[in-house]
Amino acid sequence: MNRFEVVTPRDLPNAVKLLSGRNHAALAGGVDLLDLLKQNIVAPQSLVNLKGVGAMDAIETDESGGVRIGALVKLSEVAANPTLRERYGAVAEAAAQAATPQVRNLATVGGNLLQRPRCWYFRHPDVNCLKKGGDRCYAPGGLNRYHAILGGGPSFIVHPSNLAPALVAFAASVKLIGPGGERTLELERFFTLPRIDPTRENVLDTGEVLIEVMIPAPAPGAASAYLEAREKQSFDWPLVSVAAIVVSDDTHLIRDARVVMGAVAPIPWRSHEAETALRGARLDSSAAARAAEVALKPAAPLSDNGYKVPIAKALVRRAVLRAGGIETA
Amino acid sequence: MDTPQTHQFKVIGTRPVRHDGLDKVIGRAKYGADYSFPGMLYGKVLRSPYAHARIKSINAEKALRLPGVKAVVTHDDFAPQTTAPVYRMGGEAAVNPLYLASNILAKDKVLYAGQGVAAVAATSPHIAEEALGLIEVEYEPLPIVLDVLDAMKPGAPIINTTIRRKERPDEETNIAGEFQFKRGDIEAGFKSADIIVEREFRTEMVHQGYIEPPNALGIFSGDGHATVYTSTQGPFDVRIMSATLLGLPEGSVKVVPAEIGGGFGAKLTVHIEPVALLLSKHAGGRPVKMVMTRTEMMRGATGPTSGSVLRVRMGATRDGKIVAAKCWFAYEAGAFPGSPVWLGCFTGLSPYNIDNFLVDGYDVLVNKPKTSSYRAPGATNAAFAVECVVDELAQRCGMDPLDFRIKNASREGTPSVMGPKFPRIGCVEVCEALKRSAHYQTPLAQVPGKYRGRGVAIGFWINGGMQSSAIVNVHADGTASLVTGSVDIGGSRASTAMVVAEVLGLRAEDVRPAVADTDSIGYTDGTGGSRVAFATGLAAYQAANDVVRQLKERAAKIWEISPEDVDWIDGKAVSKRNGVAPLTLKDLAPRLTRTGGPVTGRANVYATGVGPSFAGCLVDLEIDPDTAKVQVLRCTVVQDVGKAIHPSYVEGQMQGGTVQGLGWALNEEYVYDEKGNLRNASFLDYRMPTCLDLPMIDPVMVEVANPGHPLGVRGVGEVSIVPPPAAVANAVSAAVGTRITDLPISPPRLYRILAARHG
């Protein structure tokens, strides 16, 4: 870990100004940042402490029936929030399943969306991989049991965020503030594939700060579910996660659906194929199984991560059924 | 007859609050990294990025010019070392000082990624770390070998060119040690078998996973003395090893043991203690503090335990008698000789009385960290293989797995694998208690959509005795203190103090236990081999009886009778002569001044009479066929504990060892890439179970008194880790119908098995 200073700016514009300078890093919960510092993956001169600028720490309902979540809201607050639990169940559940109680009390929504991948080549101080500006990704031909089965190439990381698949499923947007002013972006467009730029996972510019997540009101009749498969029961990264929303009537006719997978691709992976297969169908186990089949059809596993495909299928099937109120094992 | 099992103890067998409990709970206890001194420097180690390379040059000029840097040292700054062994652990363990020094700071070659190459002391840890980046090391990479079978093949890259096998003195080899145990006629044995099972098993390196990373604070004083503060299991081990590496007489090094945040065997050797002293020496005697990072701890020289390849062939008659067993064990030593393979060879078959066996063990060098001890070192690997084959044999014989084990179990008088006959042991009692348990009596219900299975296994551990010292001081207020040299890793302060309290007729809380530095107590071997409650407990027992002897003399003086006419009964001096009221320690303590002065009891022991221990583990688990996730539903551990001094801490040891064994079975493994870099060197990526992963482990104590100890005590710390991997593998085998041979049984691996079997 290098030597650095911690600066607490007066307000957000000052934070943006500081972060626009060279070699500054934003500090929120500090969970992932500290880990990156300790492994010498980043070596900023200053940490700009966002917790000092006020605001960004509330969950509020807006006039249109949507919800705004400040970037500094803790994962434990998301998990416990009654509105989120009632109307955006997958979001609250995703927060509840992340890491440990201690980490959830520190880690923020913004930090969760912006954390760097857990790839064991990227995280190794002695490996200069593609993601760190090197010339190759070591996953193909290397140890890739935790890497991408969808959307990979030239880098094969998986996006580590628990919240992102659930928020993408709910069509959330993020508000960014930077030197050029404010902009709002659909979260789905915020994340970016390595074929665009392998060194980054999103389009956040230098100096920009993610300040808020906005989730529109769910469609009437919408219900959601979030499921994770892990090696351990707790304190572990998902092997696969799935957020599903099903909008159906009381005859189980599906009017709309969203299926987003996590930990399978460099970005939260929305399966339009699964959504199309579900739309207009009657929700039952065979419809869910069909959705799972088509969702994983494009999968292109590497040498050691083929096992993720059937796990992802199982989770898509279960998440769709659970969202639709049909409990499975 | 009054035996430890029937005697009505007042303190032993109760569950008082541990003496060190409050300080640990509120954060006041001082662990290694908590020590600080004025003018202190911070040390850091530069570690090799290569798994095998020649060091062509080390240039520290730039690092030394960085402001704040006070010293840079390399291997050549150690006193010159030879391969002549230094003995420790009561002479039972030999250390090769040249290998020890080279493992800590490499000499000429680096042999694994993470090996120390140079060390820096600076005025802040950040400067020290920055300075590491300024040390220029020129390496010439060499071919590497990571797999134990590859390393044994002719033509494999050779890690140490001086090593030879006895029968092939001209050939370089990675086989650094060979062990063989045999009995009877193995060929005839297999000929008489009706059923033969043969399988090859594989386990990966696993880490002990203690919470507190290794640390040391070294002060090299100008007068030829040196002091080390460190978190260690063996202060006297640190003393001899540090003194040897620095070329100092043993007695001129003082080691002050800190509280210890877990060790599990790995902290019986030195990791950075000699480096802290060396840096202090080169920095004009300023104190130097070193604390490893988690990544250093896992990649570096702290030593995980061996991965292994295990081949077991066993034969039984149709009625369930094991008639022959052949074992072939190859353990990774890491980069330097010294895996616990011989202990695997010795322990694997020990639960069974087998007339014909042949056990071969190989200690094999690979380009991975030098392994160190881990709770019952070597036994868990071997038991995994043996107990899986035994389970399959029982199944093929159509017998209950516990009946099969009882039928073949070692008993008092059975010759152990090494030859000597077992004293009174509890192997059968453990199996019978497992059979009787509510867990075993309740059938495992299947549920639709899941695979459920039950598995059982047993395990053996030899336990240790060796040397301990104890001092008991009587205070004027009628309390006492107990001073020992045994670092407390499992509640041993409480258990040894309770022994003293029992003898002296005090309450447990009236005996204050202290762990002394190496100048303040007689020689005491390390806290390992489950030896402390047994051997240091024996020293405490004898020291307390030394106090009793003196108190009887004082009572005699007060009563003006001969000491021979005083008895000590139930914690009181009782006159045999006249009808005076007995005197307790509390009565006598204030009168010591006028009857001859203070009373101190002492004892130094080389404890023989070690009682070996057996444990059994019963596991119910459920597999989600879609996600290949194994969930442990219920787990019972049964152990012969001899005599439980403090039952809660005995149960804690049983549960702790079981949890580590379950982690070994299901999740834990060192993952190396083809270049020999550890890919999961953090607790975020190396998956150890937490309390949220497992059900409550149900401990069942069986007390078969050890005839070699006045209170019947056996070591209890280690054996519970031995059976769980086999129990889990047997349960998974039962659930999915395919025999499990490789650990860990994690989803990526289990999925392949499920897919192969169920499509």
Note down, in words, how this protein is organized:
The complex is a heterodimer of chains A (329) and B (759). Chain A has 329 residues and is α+β, with helices and mostly antiparallel strands. Chain A has a domain at 222-323: 2-Layer Sandwich (Enolase-like, domain 1), CATH 3.30.390. Chain A has helices spanning 12-20, 31-38, 75-80, 82-87, 89-97, 101-104, 109-114, 163-169, 187-190, 272-278, 285-295, 308-323; strands spanning 5-7, 24-27, 46-49, 59-61, 67-70, 173-178, 181-186, 209-215, 222-230, 238-248, 254-262, 269-270. Chain B has 759 residues and is an alpha+beta fold. Among the domains of chain B are: 21-29 and 464-607, Aldehyde Oxidoreductase, domain 4; 378-463 and 610-758, Aldehyde oxidase/xanthine dehydrogenase, molybdopterin binding domain (Aldehyde Oxidoreductase, domain 4), CATH 3.30.365. In chain B, 27% of the residues lie in helices and 25% in strands. Chain B has 20 helices and 28 strands. In chain B, strands 3-7-1-14-11-12-13 form a seven-stranded mixed beta sheet. Chain B has a five-stranded mixed beta sheet with strand order 9-17-16-15-10. In chain B, α18 packs across α19 (724-736). The radius of gyration of chain B is 27 Å and the shape is globular. The model of chain B has no long low-confidence stretch (mean pLDDT 96). At the A-B interface, α12 of A face α4 and α20 of B.
